[in-house]
């Protein structure tokens, strides 16, 4: 298969495709979420009691902003809004009662009750005022009972516990459904609390010392809660779940002994809200373990997508970038800068045909480029400013990469990028360091040796317990391929050892299975491998090469080693053909490819890879003068020269075989 051209090594974005961002109509992240739009629309128009929706996202999502816009655009049915007040229970002052008022009428209700008290205290007729109050509150019977008790209380000349009769807890002046995002949650902030006062050594509470909490504030609207906070404090979820199922929220304190006046017990309030739980898939998985009943309770789910397709939504993506520009009040981006941003977004999702919507990373690059442009007194951000921002960021974060390269420079890490060796090959790995913001590629040398045995492939990493389960599976697949290819009729008399040289930490994954298989084939055929190649790819038992991850980091890692040793014009990478669309290489590698100093070879089968690595035709086991034919001949020769069983036994064996 022909090596890849320069155009195939990066996404096809050009300035001619774009205009400056100031010419684009901005879009938000929420505008690019069709699944979430559908889910919020259904939630907004749901008529049941306290529905719950689960919104699956990914790290870095601004859930609050996304949910607020999704809800604003949903245009759902009129919410069941109400103002909420607490007042003294005229029959039992230690058990204040709530009154549910029409939305936006709370202050007016308080003023009218105050006027009613004046009339009652002066023994004036208040019937017309009572009728007016009841009309404004839709003849709520509970309010009617309260007004009757109030006038009777005053008529009897009884005193009130507090000079201000009503505590207006919740007031919706704009008559809009509240959208509340909970953060830094605890029992009191979520469910409300009872404050206490002391006077002359006595502790007391009254209805004016009640704090409503987020749940009561969200009544008639939406409450958005991050799953990770509920996972840290599971008792919050179970309390909330119980309140939503019963439709009532009490005033119980969480900590034992916190209720200083146990005889003071306000009436539980109604709960009617729409709950949205937000988090990534790991949070959801942990939440399902926490509450197995969750799947029955939560029947509305939606996904926030992290990528958009280039062919279908390139224009929408540029409008999304325009929205980020406006949000952070950045300088304008010209067409070339937009193309550079799109290429970076493509690199973030490791696919030439998809663009990442990761707001944190995109905003960070745009803001850094804006700072670079302002330092240069530029009026507009260009592609050069984008590249300089990326280079600065790479310089600040590449200390570990430089330390890795230093081992190659000092000769402490033994790698070859020229010459030929039997049973030795350059593999490619991706290094992930805890706390480091990005992964980087690092070549590794694999060696294979063969010896008389039972045909087993001994993986040193697995025996040393330095390999994960997927790596162990890959080694078994290699054994399966060799057994199928060369041991279908006779067992192999050779065993092999395969090792990752100078590897001192745990490895996992199957991306080195093609590399290890080629090293074993070289050792079996006694055919040297060109060391100017590095190989990555997974294989199946039939030798088909399968895609792997981290191809850009792997290629750039081997390119760094080749630069240290000196580019010869022969060096390159062998990778799965199915990884072609994941390629988005750095400008430095692209320049070397353009000059013919570095090469990228796609392969679909192990035979193509071994032919590139050895310069020999792979052929078939039954065809002489081919690589596989030489391997089969060697195995057959060894099978025919096993230790002799003695002259007499051999002679009798030959007689009876006639």
Q: What topology emerges from the helices and strands here?
A:
Blueprint lengths: L33 H11 L7 E5 L6 H12 L8 E5 L9 E5 L4 H16 L5 H10 L4 H15 L10 E5 L8 E3 L5 H5 L1 E2 L2 E3 L2 E3 L5 E2 L1 H5 L4 E5 H6 L1 H13 L1 E2 L19 E2 L3 E6 L1 H10 L3 H4 L2 E4 L3 E3 H19 L3 E2 L1 H14 L5 E3 L2 H17 L4 E2 L1 H15 L1 H11 L10 E3 L1 E8 L8 E13 L4 E3 H4 L5 H18 L7 E7 L12 H13 L2 E3 L2 E3 L2 E2 L5 E2 L4 H15 L6 E5 L10 H8 L4 E5 L2 H9 L12 H14 L6 H11 L1
Parallel strand pairs: 1-13, 1-14, 5-10, 10-13, 16-18, 20-25, 22-23, 25-28, 28-29
Antiparallel strand pairs: 2-3, 2-4, 6-9, 7-8, 11-12, 15-17, 19-24, 20-21, 21-23, 26-27
Helix pairs in contact: 1-2, 3-5, 12-14, 13-15, 14-15, 18-19, 19-22
Structure, explained:
- The two termini are 50 Å apart.
- The protein has 4 domains: 11-27 and 306-397, Helicase, Ruva Protein, domain 3 (Orthogonal Bundle), CATH 1.10.8; 34-80 and 177-304, Rossmann fold, CATH 3.40.50; 82-176, no CATH class; 415-638, Ribosomal Protein S5, domain 2.
- Helix 13 (335-348) packs parallel to helix 15 (383-397).
- With 658 residues, the chain is of the alpha/beta class.
- It has 24 helices and 29 strands.
- The longest helix has 19 residues, at 310-328.
N-to-C CA distance:
50 Å
CATH architectural group of the largest domain: 2-Layer Sandwich
Mean pLDDT: 89
Share of residues in helices: 40-55%
- β content, as a range? 15-25%
What about the largest sheet?
A: 7 strands, mixed
Count the E strands: 29
CATH topology of the largest domain, by name, is Ribosomal Protein S5, domain 2
Contiguous low-pLDDT stretches (5 residues minimum) are: 641-658
The shape, in one word, is elongated
CATH class label of the largest domain: Alpha Beta
Strands ordered across the widest β-sheet = 22-23-21-20-25-28-29
From the alpha carbons, calculate the radius of gyration and give it in angstroms: 37 Å
How many domains would you count in the coordinates? 4
Return the structural class: alpha/beta
Figure out the total of helices.
24
